[in-house]
Design a protein that fits this description.
Layout: E1 24-28, E2 40-43, E3 49-52, E4 64-68, E5 74-80, E6 92-102, E7 107-114, E8 122-129, E9 135-143, E10 154-162, E11 166-177, E12 184-189, E13 194-195, E14 203-208, E15 214-223, E16 229-237, E17 242-246, E18 256-267, E19 270-271, E20 278-285, E21 295-300, H1 307-320, E22 326-331, H2 344-353, E23 360-363, E24 366-367, H3 375-382, E25 388-397, E26 400-409, E27 413-427, E28 439-446, E29 453-457, E30 462-470, E31 482-490, E32 496-501, E33 513-519, E34 525-531, E35 540-545, E36 548-554, E37 558-562, E38 567-575, E39 585-590, E40 604-607, E41 614-619, E42 624-631, E43 636-644, E44 646-650, E45 657-663, E46 666-672
Parallel strand pairs: 13-20, 21-22
Antiparallel strand pairs: 1-11, 2-5, 3-4, 4-11, 5-10, 6-9, 6-11, 7-8, 7-10, 12-14, 14-17, 15-16, 15-18, 18-19, 18-20, 21-23, 23-24, 25-26, 26-30, 27-28, 27-29, 27-31, 31-32, 33-34, 34-37, 35-36, 35-38, 38-39, 40-41, 41-44, 42-43, 42-45, 45-46
Length: 673
């Protein structure tokens, strides 16, 4: 799951959706490697353009085209489209997204056309950008040059300037199309790939790609085959304007996998003739949410002049936002000989992210170029729920840093890796040539030489990981000044699911064991019970139901919950001295009329439990008709017709974890080892 961009950016689910009555010439998202077929680079900068696997410009395809400063040139370079036939048209439109990562001074970009293969270029639009305009921009321009109307015109996005004054410029989602009088395109939705069990807003982004004002429109959202939710929005969108519109009715579902379909039904009170104005996306409802600690990764050097300002700004950011982030700074080996504290792990992370200059920052795996992260950006990321919980601690014995990390999944995640970095909070021994005398969050060692450890995240389950780092021979200046960061990341998409600083120089906060939910005889309540942690001495326990705190810092090992109906997801957190907390341990119970997830086994025997390979179920007094197997998220995995008094079910292919076997309407929790 990508990352959908987790700042205020949109998760673009498809390129702009074009009306059938409107002619689409080009829809390029740069989702494949290399320069797309039919595209070319003209004039200078032949080696400066390349396809890059990032989302800096805000596209949603997982790739974009990048104009790099190196090798240096001074003049004009052009990214040129394939030839298109515009016979009979007097104007066309081009839209694209861009991200300027400026170094200094001014730069010009624009759009031009040619109908003679590039011998003559006619400018349709151009503008000048500097550092005040750094960041993301969306462009839509009308093109009505002398070339429009011909059958073999090409368009280009051109850059004019001294590339030495540029870091890079990213472009994505380049679309060329004809214009219609009335057309509203459904472009995107901010609805995430994963949501919690509480209600979630459904918001759509629409774009007036016609020439007429869109005063209102009717849209709907539908989950699977359920009844659609329909709403009429007052829009008042002028030509080329975009807008975000949120349905009043929240979407609230139980854990599982779903498909969300969004549709524009009518525009300005009339039928929407665009039959393609539909977006469908798949998403998951997790068993809960947890606090996100955004991961800042910062490539810098004590020999880098521009790094000074960024370091100062980042120091201010972290001072203003304590306990809202995790941080790893990688010293790099340039300019010149680079930072003397540059280690092999830094170089490997440079290669992973494609870092070619400093400073360069990443927030939860998303490139942020050379500018410092703002308070607004950090807090926006912090306020996005996470679906992986990480807690842990480290201690030092004879120059050995021993680290223990617990990871709990709130949704199933594959292709994940766990990374652990040991930093020194402040260093002074790597002073270089840029005038700085101290540096912060400097990486000293990483687990598995920065390759991370492949992990399988399962909803409701926690795993423990232990590491030892011999700090002898590293750049550590003070063993009493260390910090340890752990994070879970998708290695392919670079999405960081969550991160956290480990508790320092202390024992690990062990979680509770053997959580059980039992319906009480009166049917109006259930009891949550658990065993104390295997190690450690918690001072109390917090009990949560559907992410709502029900009991805080209680000393008992059980808690009575009143029946609120429906599915209840319960978790218990062990609380230790000095504010330390364990990861949560989860279970769930259905208090409505659906599948009852409890420990009732009346009428049948099930064994062994826990199970390695084969579960045996035998009836008491009558035949077994059907066995339904559910995972922890309530999704049915298998339905087995039996019509016998005994059945053997092979679960050897099931992943380790918790499952629920419903035998003729009565359910028991089964643990697969």
């Amino acid at each position: 799951m990508r990352k959908y961009l987790l700042f205020s950016l949109w998760l673009v689910l498809s390129a702009s959706v074009f009306a059938q009555s409107r002619l689409s010439f080009i829809e390029e998202t740069f989702s494949s490697d290399g320069i797309p077929t039919g595209w070319s680079i003209m004039d200078l900068g032949q080696e400066n353009w390349s396809r890059w696997p990032t989302n800096m410009a805000g596209g949603g395809s997982g790739g974009e085209i990048k104009l790099n400063w190196n090798p240096p040139f001074d003049g004009t370079t052009r990214l040129v489209t394939p030839a298109i036939n515009t016979t009979g048209l007097s104007s066309i439109s081009i839209s694209f997204k861009g991200y300027l990562d400026n170094y200094q001074d001014y730069h010009k970009i624009g759009v031009a056309t040619t109908s003679d293969g590039g011998a003559t270029w006619n400018v349709a639009w151009e503008d000048t950008f500097d550092s005040s305009l750094q960041g993301q921009h969306s462009f839509e321009k009308t093109v009505s040059t002398l070339d429009v109307g011909k059958e073999n015109i090409q368009l280009c996005i051109f850059y004019t300037g001294d590339s030495n004054n540029l870091n890079s410029w990213y472009f994505d989602d380049i679309n060329v199309f004809s214009s219609e009088e009335l057309n509203l395109s459904l472009v995107a939705t901010s609805f995430p790939n994963i949501v919690g069990i509480n209600g979630k807003d459904v918001t759509i982004n629409v774009h007036n790609t016609g020439t007429t004002m869109v005063e209102s429109f009717e849209a709907s959202y539908q989950v699977d085959d359920e009844t659609p939710v329909v709403e009429t929005f007052s829009a008042n969108l002028a030509s080329t304007e975009t807008g975000d519109f949120t349905f009043q009715e929240l979407l609230s579902l139980t854990p599982g996998q779903y498909a969300l379909t969004l549709t524009i039904l009518s525009v300005n009170g009339g039928e929407d003739l665009d039959m393609d104005n539909v977006i469908t996306k798949e998403f998951e409802v997790a068993i809960g949410e947890t606090e996100r600690k955004p991961l800042i990764e910062h490539f810098s050097s004590s020999t880098c002049g521009p790094c000074v300002y960024t370091n100062q700004a980042m120091a201010t950011l972290t001072a203003n936002n304590p306990d809202k982030y995790s941080y790893v700074k990688y010293p790099v080996n340039f300019p010149g000989i680079g930072d003397p504290y540059c280690i092999g792990e830094s170089l490997l992370r440079m290669t992973y992210y494609g870092v070619t200059y400093a400073p360069q920052l990443f927030l939860d795996g998303v490139g942020h170029a050379s500018e410092a992260i703002s308070d607004q950006e950090l807090n926006a990321e912090y306020n996005i729920p996470a679906f992986v919980d990480i807690k842990g601690a480290f201690d030092i014995q004879d120059n050995i840093a021993n680290v223990t990390v617990d990871v709990t999944g709130l949704v199933d995640i594959s292709s994940a890796r766990l990374y652990v970095a040991v930093n020194e909070k402040t260093t002074i021994g790597n002073v270089g040539s840029n005038g700085e005398t101290e540096f912060h969050h400097i990486v000293m060692a990483m687990s598995n030489y920065a390759e991370g450890q492949e992990v399988e995240i399962k909803a409701g389950e926690y795993e423990r990981y232990e590491y030892s780092f011999d700090m002898t021979g590293t750049n550590v200046e003070e063993m009493s000044d260390l910090e340890v960061v752990a994070w879970i990341q998708n290695h392919s998409s670079r999405e960081v699911y969550n991160s956290r600083f480990m508790y320092e120089y202390t024992e690990h906060p062990y979680p509770v064991q053997n959580i059980q939910l039992t319906k009480n005889d009166n049917g109006t309540s259930y009891t949550v019970s658990w065993d104390a942690p295997e190690q450690g001495n918690p001072i109390g326990y917090n009990v949560y139901v559907n992410d709502n705190l029900k009991a805080e810092n209680i000393s008992e090992l059980s808690y009575l919950v009143e029946n609120s109906g429906g599915l209840n997801v319960v978790n218990v957190v062990a609380v230790y001295e000095n504010g330390k907390k364990s990861v949560a341990v989860y279970d769930m119970i259905d208090m409505g009329e659906g599948v009852s997830i409890d420990e009732v086994t009346e009428g049948f025997n099930l064994y062994p439990n826990p199970v390695e390979d084969v579960v045996k179920i035998s009836s008491v007094g009558s035949q077994i008709s059907v066995v339904k197997i559910y995972n922890l998220m309530g999704m049915m995995l298998e339905e087995i017709k039996v019509n016998s008094d005994e059945v053997k079910i092979n679960v050897s292919d099931y992943a380790s974890g918790i499952y629920f076997f419903n035998v003729d309407g009565k359910t028991v929790k089964v643990i697969k080892n």
